[in-house]
Amino acid sequence: MDKYAHIFSGRLSNPADTEQLGSQLAALVQAGDFIGLEGDLGAGKTTLARALIQQRYRQAHLPPETVSSPTFNLVQIYDTPPCPIWHLDLYRLKRVEDAEELGWEQVLNQAILLVEWPQILGRHRPPNALTITLSWADTAAEGRQGREDRLYQLTGGGDWPQRLDKAGLRSSRIENPPPVPLRSQGEAREKTGKNQ
Fold first, then answer.
1. Residues in CB range of 11: below 8 A, 6 or more apart
2. pLDDT tens track of the chain, all 196 residues?
3. Which of 78, 83, 155, 175 is close enough to 4 for a disulfide, judged by CB 3.0 to 4.6 Å?
């Protein structure tokens, strides 16, 4: 059995819904949290991370920072009170050793880690991590041509089920579609022509 228990899945109809999910999660995260952001290219991983980070600044009554994707410099650090947020993008890495060199394991207990493309970490991913998986909905098959809906799935260990229950995310107004299989990281690269 997978160490990550299914928690909740839903639909995001537009980027504003993705931002709202990120803002809701901002109230739940704390030092020691590892949040993996998985999914198709362009499905909203950075949009969600940006909303979460900016909401943390607002919660601290500070002006939100500009949040950009860490695709090329691999890690961005935001000094949000009461603890920093490390935003990592592991898309371009080929080996788990490359990820270890970024130093994320040394700061995990003192920081919040938002990690795009965490699959390369394999068994090194903390067992109490929250994984957010975003995928494109097949709106054409649903007869809703032209829509850019996304599906999301929250899975995690540790106390994440209790935290999400407390925040009301398990009883969301958004419908609960079945989990959707995602393309692998390699298939996503092949489809878009993006190389490591």
1. 17, 137, 149, 150, 151, 152, 174, 175, 177
2. 344 456 788 889 888 999 999 999 999 999 999 999 999 888 899 999 999 999 999 999 988 788 877 776 788 889 888 999 989 888 866 666 666 666 666 677 889 999 989 888 888 888 889 999 999 887 656 666 556 788 898 888 888 888 888 777 753 433 343 444 444 444 444 434 443 3
3. 155
Beta strands 112-116; 85-89: pairing state: parallel
Tokens of 72: 């090329």
> Strands of 5-12's sheet, edge to edge?
5-12, 150-156, 130-136, 34-39, 112-116, 85-89, 75-78
Residue 109, φ and ψ in degrees, nearest 5: -70, -20
Structure tokens at 160: 């994440």
